[in-house]
Structure formats: structure tokens, C-alpha cells
Amino acid sequence: MRADKQFKLNNGALQCHQKNYSISQRSAEQISGNNDLQVIAPDFSNRLKKNIAKIGKWAKKEGLDCYRIYDADLPEYNVAVDVYQDSLVIQEYAAPKSIPEETAKRRLTDIIRASIKVTGVDTNNVVLKVREKKKGSSQYNKLAQKSSTMTVNEYGAQLIVNLHDYLDTGLFLDHKITRRKLGEMAQGKDFLNLFAYTGSATVHAALGGAKSTTTVDMSNTYLEWAKDNMKLNGQVGRQHQYIQADCLQWLAKATGSYDLIFIDPPTFSNSKRMEQSFDVQRDHVTLMRDLKRLLSSDGTIVFSNNKRHFKMDMAALEEIGLTAKNISDKTLPLDFSRNKHIHNCWVISHKS
After folding, report:
1. What are the C-alpha distances in Å from 32 to residues 7, 21, 117?
2. pLDDT tens, residue by residue, 207-260
3. Rounded to whole angstroms, how far apart are CA atoms 194 and 120?
4. Which of 179, 303, 336, 348 has most Cβ atoms within 10 angstroms of its Cβ?
5. Which of these, 102, 95, 43, lies nearest to 74 by C-alpha position?
6. What 3-state class would DSSP assign to 217?
């Protein structure tokens, strides 16, 4: 048999060659080679076109070259599609057990073909990833050794991303507005970034004129990535500190004073490198109590998490002398506005 379509793409760092065969009866127009008349996954294709028309225009106006164009908008097409310059990252969410495996595979094939056709992206620039629910830091485990990076622009900050080697790319796209706000708030302030990942928030704070930055993460790999991000933006010097530590253990013993603190902890973690498990719902008040000790008298904490049904314990916060305001809606960029539950974001300060 001869393949009707052939695609080259990447599954993580694994190079794949996909061939599509039609075994059903085809129309005379298709046999004659006029396959452009056939719309692949029409519902998905139409939604993708609609999203691109709106989000692409917004991204260009904002000066962004990395953004999301689809996020499980249609239940039967359960993926996220992200643009990174001239590349696409397609993340397949784990299908419900009620969906037959063959059905899920067929839909994924349709998604890949439709995404390529609608966006015009070269098949060699398509990266496919399967995302499942993970605990702790397992979402950061390395998938391969390809070490292929690129630099993207986010509101004037140059940030390094890696589309192939990890489940995540090194940049959480849903927090682009949060990071911009941190940059706007950072002028002349001592900034602390906990659970810092690759330090993108630190870059924005430094570019915004922070007097000093302290970046804390348990992974040396991501701290080195953070340093590279800072160097790329000309932010070097003794005023920028990097600490490899379990953030919770470090926080319990840390001293000093910070005017602006950003913390985006995992929803849950039971990493072997941590002394005890962490649950953001169960432990957020204890977390805030420790942060309060480091917060300057007129300082601000920006606290975010991705727990879908997270509920801030306002009464407990008041008891320890803090007040909180939910700013989640104001931190959702247009490319994530369809998913209201992607993150929670709060501004916390000393109770007046």
C-alpha cells in the first residue's frame, strides 16, 4: 500500500515517521489528488482557526512569540496546543478510561494532521508529549538527552525554553501576566522567588529594577537554567543570589527581609528529597506564617497555585496578621482565559 500522507515529527526527543493510509472507499476528487477538499477533524480544525485568529492577533500586539492556541476546548479533542515561534508543542492529556485506546489514538492522529494543516507549521517542528497526573517533582524528570533549546520573547524578557527534553518546556505560559506584574512591582525592592523553576519570574523582577533577587529551588539543573536566563538578559552581579534547597526547609530557617515575594508551589509533593509531604490546601497557612516572618512591613506576597478547588483560609490568615485579595482573573492571559481554573493567584500583605 502507498501512504496518502507522510509526516515527520518528534515525540519528546524521539523522531517519528507517521504514515497515513486510507482503506475506505474514496471519492473521485480524492483519487484525482484533490485532497485539500477534505477537512481533517472539522470541529477541531474550525475551533483552532477561530482561536488563532483571535489569539494570534493579540499575541502580536503584546509582543509575544510563545502562547497557547488550544486547551481541551472540545472534550473529544483533549490536548493543549502551544506555539513557540515556528514550532508547535502538542500535549495530550490522559484520556478517560471510558475512551477506547484505538479511538484516542485516532483522535490524536487527526489532531496532529489538523494542527499542521491549519497552522502551516513544518512537520519537523511539531513536538508531541503525553501529560498525565504527576506527583511532586516528577513533572520535571528528564525525558531525553537532546538538549535542544531556543530563546523566546515575553514582554521584553528573553527566556530559554527546551521543547524536547522535559515534559514542561521551562516556561509556564499561563503566568506571563503574573510575571509582567511582578516586573512592574519590583522597582527598588528586594525580591524573593521560591519554587523558582527556571527563574523566569526573577528575570522579570530584575528587568523591572529590583534592588536584589534571591532565587530558591531544589533542583540544581533549574537553578543553572535560571542563571542562564538572567545572563541572557544582562542581569549579573552579587545582588542576584541562587540557593539550592528544599524551599520549605529553607523557609522555616531563613532570615532576612524581602519587599516582594513570589511563591508558586506544587499542588502536592512527596519527593524523596523532602523531609515531609506538602499539600498546598492543607499547608498554605503554615506557609504564609513562615513567609510573614520574612516580609517587610509594607511588603507584598504574590501567591499562586494550580489546585482546581483551592480555598484560601481567610480566617486563619487574619489570625496570623495577614490579608489576601484574589487577583486570579487579572492574571489570566487571553490564551488561557478559556480555562478559568488553570491557576489561582493572590496578593497577600500585612493586615493594617
Report:
1. 21, 16, 20
2. 999 999 999 999 999 999 999 999 999 999 999 999 999 999 999 999 999 999
3. 39
4. 179
5. 43
6. strand
Q: Contact, 204 vs 155, CB < 8 A? A: yes
Residue 245 near residue 218 (C-beta atoms within 8 A):
yes
- Choose among 148, 162, 111, 131: nearest CA to 7: 111
Cell numbers of 74, please? Answer: 472540545
pLDDT digits (tens, 9 = 90+) for 130-188: 865 544 444 445 544 556 899 999 999 999 999 999 889 999 999 999 999 999 999 99
Look at the alpha carbons of 322, 326, 330, 335 in this order and tell me if their dihedral is positive or negative: positive
Chain-centre distance for alpha carbon 73 = 17
Max Cα–Cα distance, the chain, nearest Å: 76
Query: What are the angstrom distances between the C-alpha of 160 and each of 102, 144, 153, 199, 344?
Result: 36, 17, 9, 10, 25
Of 188, 182, 221, residue with least CA distance to 200: 182
| Distance (Å, whole) CA 254 – CA 260 | 15
d(CA 222, CA 179): 17
